[in-house]
Amino acid sequence: MAAYRKRARARRVDGVLIVALVLGVVVGGRLPDLTGVTRRLLRTGVVLLGLQLSVARLLGLGPGVLLAVLVTVSVTFFGTLWLGRLLRLPRGLCVLVASGFSICGASAIAAVEGRVDREDEHVATSVALVTLYGTLAMVALPLVNASPQWIGLSVHEVAQVAAAAPAGGLATAMAVKLGRVALLAPIVAGLGGRGAPPVPAFLLGFLVLMLVSPLVPAVVLDVATTATTVVLAAALFGLGTSVRPMALLRTSPGALLLGLLSTLLVCGTGYLSLRVV
User: Fold this and answer.
1) Rounded distance, CA 134 to CA 259, Å?
2) What's CA 226's distance to the chain center, in Å?
3) By Cβ atoms counted within 10 A, which residue in 30, 43, 155, 227 is the most buried?
4) What distances in angstroms separate CA 249 from CA 131, 163, 189, one per listed residue?
5) pLDDT per residue over 241-275, tens digit each?
6) For the purposes of burial, counting CB atoms within 10 Å of the CB of 244, is it exposed (0-12), middle (13-18) or buried (19 or more)?
7) Three-state SS across 107-130?
8) Which among 98, 117, 127 has a CA at the least distance from the CA of 36?
């Protein structure tokens, strides 16, 4: 009975997140720019997700899956940079797309944007691309019965992973995805740049909550899980508003192609790494 209730709750979460995203897309053109609010919601959601993961659960994925996380993030990040150079796109845009597609979507873009020379248009374009292609991956992977591990390795946003994961595999998919999130710190630190701290505050919050999660009472964890769903749903709604078809049509074909190729790269690398390791 407890397992049934858990699966039913996971399905309700899936439905809420997907509906929130669709509503955002539908009404996006009628609302002001929600980028700043969405960014804060995404960061808050990542922090709260730390309570749903522990070091023991992360290590419980096994060395093979952890290696697959490292390989997928590395290949996608550096492969996207290489593809961007081939397409002769601005380096700032390429770094933003590489970070968002390889790690955790708009949250990664927000963490990296202060570390590279870029235009404001590059930030908006990369967020729109990661939302568009992440949504496509969120819909497509469940249709091919993707495993929770593959979904966690491939889908761009944390909230999109929560929406795409099968009811019985939500914890595994989120653990894999949050393993990717943990690699944001070395990426940000490696980029250097001006002024920003080497590790984003929201990522530190996530790591702290992950460390203390085994000590938190179950009732608090239940409340935190509900709060996380609400925050992620609001974030997905905000992301949905950034997907404006007319604006995407004005995006350069090279940027659209880079987003497509990066999505294929992360999905393909994730699949192959799970098969090989």
Assistant:
1) 10
2) 19
3) 155
4) 15, 26, 34
5) 876 666 666 667 899 999 999 999 999 999 999 99
6) middle
7) HHHHHHHHHCCCCHHHHHHHHHHH
8) 127
Cβ atoms of 156 and 137 within 8 Å: the answer is yes
Beta-carbon-side half-sphere exposure of residue 255 (alpha carbons within 13 Å): 25
Global pTM? 0.79
Tens-digit pLDDT profile for residues 81-102: 999 999 999 999 999 999 999 9
Cβ neighbour number for residue 241 with a 10 Å cutoff: 25
Provide the pLDDT for residue 273.
94
Tell me what the mean pLDDT of segment 124-130 comes to: 84
What's the DSSP call for residue 168?
Answer: G
- For 26-179, list the strands marked E by DSSP: none
Domain residue ranges in the chain: 2-23+75-276
The length of the chain is 277
In angstroms, the CA 95 to CA 83 distance is: 11
CB 107 within 8 A of CB 185: no
